[in-house]
Amino acid sequence: GPGQAEMYAGLQELGVANGEDLKETLTNCTEPLKAIEQFQTENGVLLPSLQYALPFLDLHGTPRLEFHQSVFDELREKLLERVSAIALEGKVEERYKKLEDLLEKSFSLVKMPSIQPVVMCVMKHLPKVPEKKLKLVMADKDLYKACAVEVKRQIWQDNQALFGDEVSPLLKQYILEKENILFSNDISFLQNFFSPSPKTRRQGEVVQKLTQMIGKNVKLYDMVLQFLRTLFLRTRNVHYCTLRAELLMSLHDLEISDICTVDPCHKFTWCLDACIREKFVDNKRARELQGFLDGVKKGQEQVLGDLSMILCDPFAINTLALSTIRHLQDLVGQDTLPRESPDLLLLLRMLSLGQGAWDMIDSQVFKEPKMEAELITRFLPLLMSFVVDDHTFTVDQKLPSEEKGPIPYPSTIPEAFIKFLQENRIACEIGLYYILHITKQRNKNAFLRLLPALVETFSDLAFSDIFLHLLTGNLTLLSDEFALEEFCTSLFDGFFLTACSRKENVHRHVLRLLLHLHHKVAPAKLESLQKALEPTKQSGEAVKELYNQLSEKLELRKPSPAEVTETPSMELPLPTVPTPASR
C-alpha cells in the first residue's frame, strides 16, 4: 500500500534496496529464482559463517524473516544502548556532533516502525535538535506523538499554542478534581478539603504531569504561569492559585534550581508552605514572611502580583484565617488590643494581599492594598467581645442561681458586625472563620446568634463552596440539634433556603447535608424541606441526582402501609425483610 512505500522510501536515499527494487528486478529478469538468490546474497547479513548456517535454519523450518528480525532486534538494542552511551561520553561538543551525524543519517527512516525508536532515542539525547527536524516532527501527528518529552519541550518552547493545547485538558481536570472534593458526599469535620498535606497534594496526577512536561525549562514554566494568571483573571477561580504554588513547590521538591532560583516567589512560597503544613503561622515564620514583603524593592513591585496569587491560594487563606482566630483568642486572655499585636497585623496584611490578588493582576497596579483602620479598631474588638460573651455566659451558668433566674444568652447581633460582613472583604472572611470556629466547638448559642448575619455577605462569601463545605462538615457535630424545630428553622429557612433558588451550589450543599443527617431531622420538618428542595426545570443534573438519592433514603424510612392501615390484604403475605439501617 501507499503507507508501505512511504515507510521504506528512506532506504533508497541510504543506498539500501527495498521492496520496489526487488519488484523491478523480478519484472525485468528471465530466471526469477536465480534473481531472488542473487538479491538475497547482495542484501543479506554479510557474515561468511552464515553461508552454511542459513540453509541449516531453513531445514528446521525457521523462516528467513524470523531470523533477520531477531538479528535486527538484537542490533537495535545494541544501537539504543550505544546512543545512550555516546550521550554521556567524551567532550560535550564531540558527543553532540556524533549524535547529530547519526540523526542526519537515520532521520529519513523515521517512518519505519523498526527504526523509529533509534531515531527518537538520538533526538531525545540532543539538547538542541536541528530546527528543520523539529518542524518535520511537528507537522506529522504520529511522529509528534511518538516523541520523547525531551524533544517535545524543544517544540513547545517556540509554540505556545501547541503547548497550550497539551496543558489545557490538565488544567480542566485539576479544577474538576477540586470541585469534586468540595461537593463530595462524604461529610465529616475530621476529613475536609484542607486535610491533605501540601506534600500529598503535590503528588497529584496533574501537578506531576505538568512538572514532567516542564522539566528544567524556564520558558515552559513561565508559559504555564502565564496560562494560570490568564485563567484566574478570566474565571476568578482560586484553585488556579493553588496550582501556581503546588507547581513551584513540586519543582522545589525535585531541587530544580534552574527554575526555583529565577522564581522570585520561591523562598516566600517555601516558608508559607511550612505554615500551611502546620495550619498555623508561628512567630519565627511570621518574621521571615514579613521580611520578604518588606524586602520588595523599588522597581520590582511586580513581584507583588505573584505573591498575592500565592497568598490567594485557599490553603494559604485557610491557614492565615485560622491563625487570626487563634491570635484573637489569645489577645482576649492577655487583655491586649488587636492594634498592639504585630503578629496579628501581619496576618491581616497577608490576608488582604491574598484577597486583593485578582484586582491587582487585573489592574496591573502593583502595590499592597491599604488596610482599613476600622477593621483593626472596630471589627476585631467586636469579635473579641463575642469570645468574652461566651466566657461570661459559661461562668454564669456555673454560679448558683439566685432568685433572678438563669441569665439568657445574648441574642442580638451588633448592627456594626452585620455591616462589616457586607462591606469589608477581610472582615467577612475572618467573620466566617469565627463562625466555623464556634460551630466546631459545638457552641449552638453563639452559632444561632450570628447565623442571621450570613444571609447577606460581601460578594456572597457565605454561599461560596469552600465555606459551605466546611460549615456542613462542622454541623455534623451539632447533629442532635437537628431534631429541634427552632434550630432547623433558623438554619434552613433563615439561611440555606434564602439562596437555594438563585444559587445552584447552595442547593447542592443543603442536599449533601440532608443526605448525611436526614435521620436526625424532625419528620414534619423533613417533609417541608423535601418540598422546598424539589429541583426545578432549570436545576442541573447534580441537584436532580442528589434529590433522587435523598428521596430514596426517605422512602426507606417511611413506615410501611401495612403498619398504618389494618385492612386485611388480599395478596399473599410477603416475608418481612429488616430494613437496612439508613444513614
From TrEMBL:
It holds the Pfam family COBRA1. One of its GO terms (cellular component) is NELF complex. Residues 557-583 are annotated as: Disordered. Signal peptide: none annotated. One of its GO terms (biological process) is negative regulation of transcription elongation by RNA polymerase II. PANTHER family: NEGATIVE ELONGATION FACTOR B, NEGATIVE ELONGATION FACTOR COMPLEX MEMBER B. This is NELFB factor. It comes from Hylia prasina. The gene is Nelfb.
